[in-house]
Amino acid sequence: MDWKDQLKDIWNRIAWTGTASFSLPGALFEVQPDFVMGARFAGKSNGNGHSQLGRLAVEPLQPGALAASPAGPIVLNESAVVKALHDVAAAVGNGQPRAGLLVPDGAVRVGVFPFDELPSGKREAATLVGWRMRESLPYPPAEARISYQTTRPAGGMEIAAVAARSSVMTEFEGLLDAINRSADMVLPATMALLPLLPEQGESGHLLVHVYSSAATLVVAQGERLRFWRTSDLTGLAPDAMFEQVASEAARVLASSEDRLNVQLGPIRLCVRPPATEAWAERLASALRREVALLQPAPEIAALLGGPDRTAFHSYGATMAGLAANR
Amino acid sequence: MKVNVNLARDQGFRRRHLVAWSVPVLGVAVLLMIRMLLGAEANWREYRAVSSAADREAARQNDLLVRESTLRRKLDEPDNRALLREVQFINYLIDERQLSFGELTDKVTTLLPPQARLSGLSMPDASGDPLVHFMIEGASEEPVETFLTNLESSPDFREVVINNQGFEEKDNGAGGGGGGGAPVSITCSARYVGGRTNLPLLPAKTAAPAGEQILTAPAPKVTTGAKPPAGLGMPAGVKAAASVGGLKPGRVGAGTPLLPPPAAPAVPSPAARPPNPSPGAVRGAASQPPTGPGSTPPKTN
To answer: CB neighbours of B107 closer than 8 A, spacing ≥ 6?
Structure first.
C-alpha cells in the first residue's frame, strides 16, 4: 500500500459516517435511467395503517442521463436529471426538506450473510459486513456505505446488507440537494417492494422486478431475505429482456428450492415500462409456475387523481411498498 | 417483509440541528461583530480626538518655545539689557529703603545733651554706610564734648571725624536767645551704621520673566556698605533719577544740609525740648528762627 492509499484509508476512517435508521419521509423520489418519479404522502393512513399518497408524478428522463453503475459515476447529465427532479417536485408540491430517494438496483450491492455474532459498535460491524461483501463489491470495502438488517432464524443470525459506494451515494444526494431537499432515506428501488410481499406461511416468494434497465429477482421468506440478484438489461429490446428475465427466474427458482430449501409460492411480478402486465402470462407460461402481479393495496392510491392514478398504476409500486412498510 | 435498511447518511443530533442552530449562532455572531465594529469605531474616534488634542498641545508648546526664544532674543538686545539692569537697580534701591532719615535724626537727637542743639544735618554719601555730617551748637564746650563722646560711643555711628569747631561771641541783647556766654559750634562727620540691612539684592517681588538666567542665579547679599554687583550697578541714566525715601543720594553733595541751617540757632532749654523729638519736630525746630540772644549764624573756622 503506497502513501496515497494510506492517506485515502486515513481519510476514509476520518470521514466515515454511519447510515441512518429507516424512517419514512413525507416525500419520495425515485430516479431511474429512463424516468424520475416523485410522490407525496398525504399524512393520512387508512384502516390498515398504510400511508396514503397525496400526489404522484413521473417525468421521463432522456437516455444516457443516468447510469446504474455500482462504481460510478452515476449522473452523466446532471442538468437533465435535476430538471426532471425539479419538475416532479413542483408537480408533487411538497416543500418538506427531508425526502426519500429510491435508486436503481444496479447502483447498489445486496447480500445475505450468516453471522454468529456482530460487534456491538456500528463502525466495527459495518466494517465486518463490508469485509464479508468484499468479493461482490467492485470497489474497496472501505469506500462502501453499508446498511443492514438482522434476522434471527433458528440457530443463528442472518444479515441482509446493502452496500453502495460513498461517492455514488454522494452523487444521488447531490441531486436532491440541487432541489433543496436532503436525502433522509436512500434505498434500492426493489427493496421498497419487499413490504408488499405477504409474510404469512412458511413458503417463500420470488419477486421479479423488471424495469427499464435492470431486472431484480428477490427471494424472501417471511422476515428473511434469502436471495437477491440484479441483472443489467440496458440496451435490450423488450423481448430480449423478457427472455433474460425468464431464464434468470428459472435459475433462481431452481437454486432456491435446491440450495436454500425454500418452497416458493406464486411468483410475484412487478413490471414497469417498458415491461407490461402481459409479461405475467408469458412468464407463467415460460416457467410453468403461477405468476401474480404485485398489486399494492388500492387504498394507498385512494387519494390520487386520474393522471396520478394512471402513473401510479404503471410506476408507483415502489411508493406503495414504502407506504405499506410498517 | 419489513424493510429497515437505509443508505442515507446518519445525520446525528449535531448534524441535524446544525442548520437549525447555525442561524441563531450566525445572528449572534453578526451582532457581536457589529458590536465590535461599533466599539472599534468609538475607540478610533476617541483615539483621533486624543491624538488631535496631543497634536494641538505639541503645536502650542512649540509656539511657546518660539515665543520664548523670541523673547530671549529680545531680552538679549542691549536696550532690554539696560532696562533689566534698571529694574534690578530699582529693586535694589527699594530694598535699601530700610534707611530712614527720621530714625537717623531721632538717634542723633538722643545723643545731644540738653545744652547742645543740632543745627545742621546732611548726608553727602548715602551709598554703603552713609556719611553723615553734623553741625552742633552748644552753650559751652562741655555739651559739645558730651555729644562727641556720646557719638563715638554710639553703636549706630563710627569713624567720627571732627571737621571744624569754633567759638563765637554772641550778642546777648540782640540775639534774645538767652543762655549767655559764647556758644560753641562744631562740625563733625560719622558713618551711620545703624541702618544696615542684610536683605537680598533681588527679592521675589522682582517682576522678572521666568527662565531668565541672570535673575534666577543666587543673588549676593548686599549690606549697606557694599556696592551693587557689577552686573547690577546703577545705570548711568538711572543714577540721577533715583531717589529713595525723599533722599537723593546721587545729588547730595558734601556739606549740603538736608535741613536748612537755623537762622538764629538757640539751644532750647531742657524743659522746652521734647525728650525724643520726631524728625518732623526736629525739622520744625530747626526751621524756627533763633530766638535766643546768642543766635548768630554759625561761623566756621
So the answer is: B154, B156, B194
Angle (CA) A289 A293 A294, round 5°? 120
The pLDDT tens digits for A199-231 are 777 788 899 999 877 899 999 988 888 999 999
pLDDT tens string B75-94? 888 888 888 888 888 888 77
Nearest by CB: A145 against B4, B7, B11: B7
| Residue B11 in contact with partner chain A when CB distance is under 8 A | yes
Cβ distance of B7 and A173 shorter than 8 Å: no
Amino acid at A206: L
Give the domain range for residue A260: 198-293
What is the domain partition of chain B in residue ranges? 106-195+246-275+282-287
For the segment B81-137, what is each residue's pLDDT rounded down to a tens digit?
A: 888 888 888 888 777 656 677 888 888 888 999 888 888 888 887 777 788 898 998
Our CA dihedral for A280, A286, A287, A293, rounded to 10 degrees, sits at 0
**Are B9 and A199 an interchain contact pair (Cβ–Cβ within 8 Å)?**
no
Q: What is the pLDDT of residue B129?
A: 76
CB of B204 within 8 Å of a chain A CB? The answer is no
d(CA B221, CA B202): 9
B106-195+246-275+282-287 carries CATH number 3.30.70? yes
Tell whether B23 is within 8 A of chain A (Cβ): no
Nearest to A220 among B1, B8, B11 (CB): B1
Q: Do A148 and B1 touch (CB under 8 A)?
A: no
| Rg for chain B, CA atoms, rounded | 44
**CB proximity A194 to B under 8 Å:** yes
* Highest mean pLDDT: which range of A252-266, B10-24, B36-50, B109-123: B36-50
Whether residue A168 is contained in a domain is answered as no
| Under 8 Å between Cβ of A264 and A256 | yes
ipTM: 0.86
Q: What beta strand segments (E) does B74-156 contain?
A: 116-125, 131-138
- Which domain CATH number covers A230? 3.30.420.40
Which of B248, B229, B230, B226 minimizes the C-alpha distance to B238?
B248
Average pLDDT over residues B280-288: 36
A160 reaches B (C-beta below 8 A): yes
Average pLDDT over residues A73-90: 91
Question: d(Cα A312, Cα B259) in Å, to the nearest integer?
Answer: 149
How many whole angstroms separate alpha carbon A152 and alpha carbon A158? 6
pTM attached to this predicted model:
0.55
SS3 B200: strand
Q: Is B205 on the interface with A (CB under 8 A)?
A: no
What count of residues does chain A have?
Answer: 326
The model's confidence at residue B189, banded by pLDDT at 50, 70 and 90, is very high
Minimum Cα–Cα distance from A100: chain B residue: B8
